Amino acid sequence: MSEQWRDNNQVQLLINGEAFFPSVFEAISQAREEVLIETFILFEDKVGCELQQTLIEAAQRGVRVELLVDGYGTAELSEGFLRDLVQAGVKLLGYDPQPKVMGMRTNLFRRLHRKIVVIDGEIGFIGGINYSADHLADFGPMGKQDYAVKVRGPIVADLHRATLKLLDETSHLVRPEQPWRTRGAPIDADSAQAAMLLSIRDNDEHTNDIEQHYLQGIREARQRIIIANAYFFPGYRVLRELRNAARRGVEVTLILQGMPDMPMVRLCSRLLYNYLLRDGVVIREYTERPLHGKVAIIDDEWATVGSSNLDPLSLSLNLEANVMIRDRRFNEKLHEHLAELARTQCKSITLQRVLRGYWWRAPLIFLTFHFLRHFPAIVGFIPAHSPKLKPLLDVQQDVKPLGYREEKSV
Questions:
Q1: What is the model's pTM?
Q2: Can 135 be counted among the known catalytic residues?
Q3: In this predicted model, what pLDDT tens digit does every residue of 234-268 receive, in sequence order?
Q4: Is 292 a catalytic residue?
């Protein structure tokens, strides 16, 4: 881990799309020079269309706008939606887009899963929220519970640098280094003195950095650990350290999916329950709506918010980004929220309940755990290629985007 802690940052917790989308769109609407966005999913729904319009307006007033979407997560945008962006001057790239095979997306592994926004090198956003209406409460019972942070301070330079590195590494552009800029009004922060560190996971130099920060924090915990994670199936080292923490008297609480958007995720997580519960780890399943968050707090100062799940895809294959935060005020705010979530919107999982029928499930649990634990290594045998950033639509050459939807006349 070669990252650096940056002091004196302002940080604001944003819970769900209701807080995140207005804040991002307002920041883009006030941009003067540059808007950089990375996202896994951009849907052509009311949220995606509002983002599209906000970016078009920024580009039309002379702001440099660059939007990078994942070629697997964002594969269903219409040609008209893309064309309007490109014609307005938005630089629109896809991370390793691939054509479908028999109508199926095949580019499942090594995805761009990061969610980062940088405005004018001054304000940044990072978290787990995609640009889709299913991150809003009015979406219905399947609207996701999720988190992000808005930041201002020296950490923004690290976000800016990381995003430009990914945008430019295949286009071979050379841009001057931009330090964090001090101009502009402060944000509505939960803390104005937070120490922050940006940790990324890639398939080159930072293959396990985020996991290492989790492991270090868990090992050093003395009072409490709360992890709220959508897709929870970490490797043995994380599981062992959570058990060890509980054994030495740390209050360890996991908030996991009880109403999953993908039932297989819940099944995989439940394979681990007996292992954790028998040493005192507390497990709560969130049942109000699908949990999509990737946040944690340790003791009364450390916290993390970002895109990385604790599962084989995030920890070993995808491109991910989390911020680590050392600040008592922010930690306490997130703790109050998570404690209330666990108390009022979760159901408790008991060891007695998990052990019912365990005798016949034990061999299945053993085999499944070790298969999934070694899954990234298995995927590694698949012939690999270097993912490329490609324009999703070239208006000048009238090249149709990979995976695009034809416009239909009505």
A1: 0.88
A2: no
A3: 988 999 999 999 999 999 999 999 876 665 666 66
A4: yes
Domain around 59:
6-200+383-391
Does residue 125 sit in the same domain as residue 173? yes
Residue 385 appears among annotated catalytic residues = no
Torsion of CA 205, 208, 214, 217, to 10 degrees: -60
Helix (H, G, I), strand (E, B) or coil at 231: coil
- Say which of 70, 96, 120, 202 is annotated catalytic: 120
One domain, residues 80 and 159: yes
- Are 218 and 196 within one domain? no
Residue 401 domain flag: no
DSSP code of residue 167: H
Q: Are residues 27 and 159 in the same domain?
A: yes
Among the listed residues 299, 300, 335, 337, the single catalytic one is: 299
Are both 25 and 174 inside the same structural domain?
Answer: yes
Q: Give the number of domains in the chain.
A: 2
Catalytic, out of 292, 311, 327, 333: 292
Instruction: Dump pLDDT digits (tens) for 193-207.
Output: 999 999 999 988 899
Q: Among this protein's residues, is 299 annotated catalytic?
A: yes
Active-site choice (135, 160, 213, 294) = 294
Contacts of 406 (CB under 8 A, 6+ apart): 78, 79
User: How far apart, in whole angstroms, are the C-alpha atoms of residue 351 and residue 273?
Assistant: 8
